Amino acid sequence: MTPMRDQLPHRGLEAWKWSDLRAEVAKHDPAGFDASMEATVSLPGDVGEARATVAEPDDLMGRIAAEYAADSVALRIPDGASYDRPLELSNLSQGNGRVVIEVGEGATLDVIERHDGESGFANLDIRYVVKAGGTLHRTVLSSDGPEMIRHVRAHVTLWDRAGFKQTKLTFGGAFSRLETRLACMGAVDVEMSGAYLLDGSRHADITHYIDFAAPGSTVRDAVAGVVTDKARGVFQGKFHVRRPAQQTDAEMRHDALMLSDTSRVNAKPELEIYADDVECAHGNTIGQLDENALFYMRQRGIPETQARALLIEAFVAARLGDDEDMLGLVRDWLAARA
Amino acid sequence: MLNITNLTATVDDGRKTILDGLSLSVPAGEVHAIMGPNGAGKSTLSYVVTGRDGYDVTGGSVTLDGEDLLDMDPEERAAKGVFLSFQYPLEIPGVPTLTFLRTAMNAQRKARGEEPISAPDFMKRARDVAKQLKIAPEMLRRPLNVGFSGGEKKRMEIFQMMVLEPRFIVMDETDSGLDVDALRVVADGVNALRAPDRGILIITHYQRLLDYIVPDQVHVLAGGAIRASGDAGFAKTLETEGYDAYA
Known about the structure:
The complex is a heterodimer of chains A (about 350) and B (about 250). Chain A is an alpha/beta fold and about 350 residues long.
């Protein structure tokens, strides 16, 4: 055991009580724990180099990334720039990586992060800064193998009038935590959505922390999950509304479907509010497929497996919009289980 | 066409008998009505015929043109042409009405070894039926029954029925939730489906619907079995005299 392994977060920590990374690393002894990630970056066009150097991480996983990542990707999207294709980050499947992407004032950027590891350890510390009036659309497509151990923490700093849209789709792994931490430094507009579909003994943790430091932000955060077999889904969401953040309008919801008696879902939506003129809400539901709806569909002639797939697809599609890539992956997952 | 012989069904692991030796025969080309008090087993009959889980058939048989229905899954019975218009139609979130119905139609066709219906043919048929039932086209693009009123849901049942053109129809309390105008539209649709090769079984608590869809025979279901039968006029007698005599 290296000293760093001893520092891994574990279930004794409140924020990690359902996602015991230390235990999973000890159990699997994954390749790449102390390696550097060789990420592939596909640029959408001309971009610059980030002026800001990578900040010293103040969190455990960030420190591990800093310790083992050989160098970091640091990009700056020029003010006012926009592209007709996304920036793609791939080959994120082993080792530790650090990425910084600044979106300049009034610029627009689409980013796709692809996870397709078979096994091993991947830890990515990714920092996005969206300057005033800029827009970032982040898509995370996580289709790792069942042996993969993955941790991704995105720190997103949004300046005044910035827009941030995020869509995550994950099929989990031996361990998977996709965390997003937002700092809303001005009046910003945020739409976060996501879905997890887990089978076997897979695990996926979606953790969202949103820090409101300034007045007038609007945030919508909605995650849907489907678990079956012995899989475990975790959702943690927190709105932290500081005293100056008046007129914050924020809603968070998590809905999960449990398709087996042996699957598990843990959810913790939280509000911590110090401003007095805000509208914040959270909702959480955990249920099963509606047997009455299933019978109704079968009575119309739709075979049971197809009826189940249709209901599940509709359940998660509500969180994935009209992204055909994502819906295709969802259908593949459903077809593989039929 | 539909033959039910000495049917016995229980729930709660046999602790409660709902159908108790029910026999009924609906020949092709006829419309039969089943009336009866609350708790007589009317809805149970519709569910046992269509194969819903939760009922134990402990005796008797149900056949459609000689084929044993009780041995089939609900979707197989649907493919054979059995259609239930639900008393409480379910909401199917996220699945647009037309998508749902085309999926159902093609699943039935596949089960029967037929080619799928083409998108243009399906759309034309759906549009024609919607017009006939005075259903606005935008309703068909919304998720099935989600946020629909009780009356709209009932009308959507008839819409599905008319597009699917089933061979044997069971209508469970179709009139509840419908105002008189809607009732007339629905009845016109059902009457248009009357055909020499199709049977219809109407389950209803009230006689009202039978003013619009005149049945060939009326049966009283009470205590889990058919207690009396008569012609269309019998429904009116039952409405005025009640079911006390058959309890």
